[in-house]
Specification:
268 residues, mainly alpha, 11 helices, 72% helix, globular, membrane, EamA_dom, transmembrane, cell membrane
C-alpha cells in the first residue's frame, strides 16, 4: 500500500468507527462553524500527513522528530491571533525549551552526526506549522458545545474529502488483494481505530481541557513513549542521552503546567 492509500484508508476506518461509537448526527451547525471543521480537516488530516510522510522520504526520522517539537512555538504565535483568551505564562517558554532539548537528545542519542536535508526538513517544518493550525482550529471547535466524537468525525469527513482530488495524481489503485494480508489488516486496524479515531478524540478533549498552548507541549511526549516502548518491546537499551532527554521532557511539561493543577470536568 502506498502512503496515500494508507492515509485515506485509516481515516475512512476511523470515521466508521466513530459513527459506530456515537451514531447521533451533528446538526444545527452554522456556515462559520462548518468553515472551522473544513479548515481543521484540511490541516490536521490532509496536509499534515502529506507533508510528514513526504518529509520522511527526504530526511531522517530524527530530524523530523526534532522539527516536530517546534510545533508549540508556532501554536503560541497563532494563539495570539486566534485565541485571545489563552494566557501565556513565562514558565511555558521555559518548559518549551526544556522539552525541545529533551527531544533533541532522544532523537540523536544513536546518531553519529546531525545532517541537514533541506527539502525533507522544510516539509517537516511545514508539517509542524500545519499541526499548530489544526490545534488552534480544534480548540475553537471545542467552544461550540458539541460532542467531541461528533466534531472529530466531522473533521475526519472533511479531511477525507480534501484527499479525493489528490488520489488521481498519486498512482493509487486500492486493489482488494493488498488488503487481504493479515499483517496489513492488523496495522490498518491499529492506525484507523487507535492512531486516528481514539487518539484524535483524546487530543481534542485535551485541547478543550488545557487549551491549545498548554496541550501543544504534550506532542513532545511522543518520542519519549517511543524510547520507552523500544526498551519494553524491542529490548533496546536506554542511553545516557535518551534518559536525559526523557527527564528534560518531563521537567518541561511539569514547569509549563505549574500553577495549573486543577480538577477538570468535561461537559460533553
Amino acid at each position: 500500500l502506498s502512503p496515500i492509500e494508507i492515509l485515506f484508508t485509516r481515516f475512512v476506518m476511523g470515521t466508521c468507527f466513530l459513527m459506530l461509537l456515537f451514531p447521533k448526527r451533528l446538526k444545527g451547525t452554522s456556515l462559520k462553524q462548518e468553515g472551522y471543521f473544513a479548515a481543521a480537516g484540511l490541516c490536521g488530516i490532509t496536509l499534515y500527513y502529506l507533508f510528514e510522510n513526504n518529509a520522511l522520504l527526504y530526511t531522517f526520522a530524527s530530524n523530523a522528530a526534532l522539527i516536530a517539537s517546534t510545533s508549540p512555538f508556532f501554536t503560541v504565535l497563532l494563539a495570539r491571533f486566534f485565541l485571545k483568551d489563552e494566557v501565556i505564562r513565562p514558565q511555558f517558554f521555559i518548559g518549551m525549551i526544556l522539552s525541545f532539548a529533551g527531544v533533541g537528545l532522544m532523537s540523536f542519542s544513536g546518531a553519529s552526526e546531525f545532517e541537514i536535508n533541506l527539502k525533507g526538513d522544510f516539509l517537516a517544518l511545514l508539517a509542524a506549522i500545519i499541526w499548530s493550525f489544526y490545534s488552534i482550529f480544534s480548540k475553537k471547535i471545542s467552544t461550540f458545545g458539541y460532542n467531541t466524537i461528533q466534531t472529530t468525525r466531522r473533521t475526519f469527513i472533511y479531511g477525507i474529502l480534501f484527499m479525493l482530488p489528490i488520489l488521481p495524481f498519486s498512482h493509487v489503485n486500492f486493489e482488494i488483494k493488498n488488503y487481504l494480508d493479515t499483517t496489513v489488516i492488523l496495522n490498518l486496524l491499529f492506525l484507523g481505530l487507535g492512531a486516528s479515531a481514539i487518539c484524535f478524540v483524546t487530543w481534542n478533549l485535551a485541547l478543550r481541557a488545557l487549551g491549545a498552548i498548554k496541550a501543544s507541549l504534550y506532542i513532545n511526549v511522543v518520542p519519549m513513549v517511543t524510547v520507552i516502548f523500544s526498551v519494553l518491546i524491542l529490548n533496546e537499551k536506554i542511553t545516557l542521552m535518551s534518559g536525559t532527554g526523557i527527564a528534560l521532557v518531563l521537567c518541561g511539561l511539569f514547569i509549563s503546567q505549574f500553577k495549573k493543577f486543577r480538577k477538570v470536568t468535561f461537559h460533553n
